[in-house]
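Morning F.,

Quick status update on the modeling queue. The single chain you submitted on Monday has been processed. Sequence for confirmation:
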Amino acid sequence: MRRHSSSSDSSSAARPSAAANQGTRNDWVTLKTLLPYLWAYKLRVSFALAFLIGAKMANVGVPVVLKRLIDSLTITPGDPKALMVLPLGILVAYGVLRLCTTLFTELREFVFARVTQRAVRTIALQVFEHLHSLSLRFHLNRQTGGMTRDIERGTRGISSLVGYTLFSILPTLVEITLVLGYLGLHYDIWFTIITVSALATYILFTVVVTEWRTHFRRTMNDLDSKANSRAIDSLINFETVKYFGNEAYEARRYDEGLQRYETAAVRSQTSLSALNTGQSAIIAIAVTLILWRATQGVIDGTMSLGDLVLVNAFMIQLYIPLNFLGVIYREIKQSLADMERLFSLLDQHREIADPPGAKPLSSHGAAIRFRHVDFSYETNRQILFDVDFTIPAGTTTAVVGHSGSGKSTLSRLLFRFYDVGSGSISIDGQDIRQVTQDSLRAAIGIVPQDTVLFNDSIEYNIAYGNPGASKEQVIGAARAACIHDFILTLPEGYSTMVGERGLKLSGGEKQRVAIARAVLKNPSILIFDEATSALDSKAEQAIQAQLKEIARDRTTLVIAHRLSTIADAAQILVLDHGRVVERGTHEQLLALGNLYAQMWARQQVRPDGADDASPVGSPVPRSLIA
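Structure tokens below.
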């Protein structure tokens, strides 16, 4: 038994565990969070509990029938006919009880299986949906590898906790109660005293030592998540690692985490040996004392051989689940720790939420108004200062400025990835904070500067703009984005896999897929955030006319570095350090001779349209290349 206990805990230690305790939850809070998901199927739970009790009553009845069988076969001196009696009724009862034990156990698992799996499914889906409802701020700060481990371990922990509780702890408690009741009614009080004392000592010892071991397990959990996050981050940035030849450096960093995990795992295993030894000693002493009392009773004539067999069978039936109680308790604690981090994800505050009674956006032209907007990502670093402008319905407004001036922040605020610090943003007179996020984002299409694709086919990635679109509509969108002919040159055409984050495609090809995706969405508002930055000049010229056609009759916000691409915009805004410092048409801004005119002049010298944050010709500081 000890060997099984050890291997069980070792495998548990080796597998991913929950991260360190956040201090925001305890075991009871975690259980209270789980119970409503199970109680939603209270009828099935009730049937499962009834079958559980039935199985244990049948199990306890087996030794009682066995005792009567042995006593009925006991030879009375001078009565040889006793050997001729076959206790058929007792034999049948013995077989029926054995069958009922298995039958009720299987019925219990059959009835409860759907409860467990449905609870896991419901919670996993709720966490997934909640993560998508959290703000961009949360997702910029999260570690993908560690978070996916938390979800995986948490959902597995739910299955483990429910299984161990209903299929191990409760049956054991029911059986202990029935056995103690029978011993107390039919035998010497010492049998009950020894059994209760052994149980209390065993449980107390297990709980105390397991609690002492918990910090080893939590340390292992934390180190496991950190090592996994580091590995995932390194693999995601595979090309960067190769560019700088830092494979050995990454391996050393990963091994540092593995070394710390190894140390914590060794301590955990050592403490497990001490726990197993103590548990075995308590059980051995208790069983020896019980058999001593039973043997003495037979010698004294106060107990029959059937009684001796009965008591011994009871001890064997209690010994097996009691010996596993330590393993089960450790697994339950582990499951609770796993679930703790999962439920803590549900506790994450939704920074951006629809207000009560929010209505869908009612768009009739989609005029956009930024009214005296201030915004900060962090309280001590303001990004936008009193930004105030209007984009008339069906027109194109371009925003230009040096890197870091706050251009892309405008699109994030319009999408309501963040809420403005002060001021307001409205569409057709409706404050975007007062409408549902789903309707707001359905009205806006974007071609981002950094296009990230799903690890699926080109067709899937284009169709993501409108998952219900037909193949013909997908092809039409690809034609509008000037990528259809390229796709046809690929061996698998539209079924070509693009790789993780679209890494099998070039930057220009990914941007064309993003343009096709936005076209397929058919929104009333379009945002082009450097939509052609990854294209060469020839490709850009080829697609620029298509972009203008796509933007026709739509309210369009263009964020640009290459000023030549927005020269015909109805309005151009120049941002500098978060402030609108100039506005007007291309000709008007050139006539002013200020910042926009300077940027235009620089780009005539540097046709690549590089966005300089420093004056042309400024030398690179030696400190950056030393």
